[in-house]
Fold this sequence. Notes:
- By secondary structure, the chain is of the alpha+beta class.
- The protein is built from three helices and nine strands.
- Strands 1, 2, 3, 4 and 5 form a five-stranded antiparallel sheet that branches. Strands 8-7-6-9 form a four-stranded mixed sheet, with no helix packed on it.
- A hairpin with a 2-residue loop joins strand 6 (about 90-95) and strand 7 (about 100-105).
Amino acid sequence: MLSSASAREAGKWKSGAFAVIAVYLLFTGLWQLTKGNYGQKAWLNIFLGLCSAMVVRYEKRIYVSELGLVKETHTWFSHHREILPWKEIRSVTLQTKGERVMLFAERDVTGWKLLFGKGDMPKLKELIKQYAPKLKITEVYPRF
Length: 144
């Protein structure tokens, strides 16, 4: 398994800020409801508080595995996993630029783009050859 540099997660400051916002909005909305205010503002505060709570824990992982290319998104309330299997990938293009390598995995008309560090290129090629030995790998280098 090789993780992509395209992965993201909410940092501690963002998570903390969204947690404070979520608590404030939820308590404000619930307080308004207990006071008999069933208007739009109370429901909007509760809805926005729930949305803020959802982003407190946000993690997006993208990696190369024996299944193919995998994108996983985790929040407190959901887990989504999307797989691009090796058998559906028609070709792979690796383009280097500076200290980065962009992997373009082509499937039919569309495909996926994943970002890796330049040091990951040998491991990336090894994994592709291991899991999809018939797959064509094209390397593109920038012209200066």
